[in-house]
Amino acid sequence: MPEFDHTRRSLLASGAAAISLGFAGCIQSGGGDSDGQSNESTTGSDSSSEGGDGASSFDPANPEFPQPMATLISAGFETGSLSDLENMEEREKPRYGKPVKETPSKESELLDPDKLAFAMTPSEDPAAYRTTMKPLMDNIAKETGKEVEYFPLQSYASQVEAMRSERLHIAGFSTGPTPFAVNLAGAVPFSLQVSGEGDFGYRLWLATQADNDDINSLSDLQGKRVAHSEPSSNSGNQAPRALFANQGVVPGDDYEVAYSGGHEQSVLGVANGDYDAAPVCSTCVTRVANAGNLDPSNIKVVWASNPFPTTSFTYRYNLTPEIQEGIRAAFTDYDYSDTQIAETFEGRGKFTEIDYATAYDIILQIQENNGVEYQTDNLGE
């Protein structure tokens, strides 16, 4: 397996990175938070590309809004990219919950197991990833000198508990449970999975009709009828309620919320004029457009969030420094694009390093807004 020349690795040291999930060059609203926190999204400034496909004038590194949805899809802006990570400022600590634990300085507190246990996020078949992740586990064994065994688990709560009790040492935690793992289990998120082009995650887009001159920014939702997908949906309801409120627009107070039943129903309802606008999952509506069920040139996007991270890869904080270094190397120094890992995860065969406080800030905003308490009883299946 060829090694991966990981150019980003030099950007990070001791697990801290000079990155965040804000956009370089985006216009800030009110100068950012008073405690120095970066803004959570791009903003709706006028775009010269409105009304056409605009692909030649749209700069993903310095986005302006509104933009035709067709332009964003053409530019691949439905996902995040490595440049989104590389160009961001660092957050020194998480806005909500505990920071990542430091490696103990006392040798007596370090963990040096004979075997390393690895687990992916729970699925209907907990052992399904055993074969898929074998190339990665082989490299963990190579880099650490330890035998690595796959540890299938059946729920988020059992995964967090296994790491808390030191029975699980390396794990891929789903987006929502990642802060639980940090706060309860001593997990150190250090990497995200990316494609060969560096794509990861998805965004929240605020969509309206391309010819709707009344809505060109988030603040224009005042008094409008806006489709949210379902009450339990992250990007279709929970995220906009948190992120919009942080920008001064409170769903249900500043505009009427109408539940559509899903992202496809939301965007098609906007296209048909049933709703004035809708917050939608970018990759979801891109699939609707690619399937021929929506003409994206008839929709414009007036606001976009920073990328939502996907599965975080973590290790327990008190593993010896040598084991930690080997684990990181097994992820970030190798290219898995020609393995089952990429085949299973939609081309995402590489790993890039992250800092939890910055990369997960958008998730922590949502959990803070929703009053999430980090207890294992609050983890779903």
Automatic annotation (TrEMBL):
One of the protein's GO biological processes: transmembrane transport
Gene Ontology, cellular component aspect: ATP-binding cassette (ABC) transporter complex
Low complexity composition bias: residue spans: 35-50
Pfam families noted in UniProt: Phosphonate-bd
Sequence segments annotated as region (Disordered): 26-68, 82-109
Superkingdom classification of source: Archaea
Alphabetical keyword list: Signal
Biased composition, class Basic and acidic residues, residue ranges: 88-109
UniProt-recorded name of the protein: Putative phosphonate ABC transporter, periplasmic phosphonate-binding protein
Taxonomic source organism: Haloferax mucosum ATCC BAA-1512
Source taxonomy: Archaea, Methanobacteriati, Methanobacteriota, Stenosarchaea group, Halobacteria
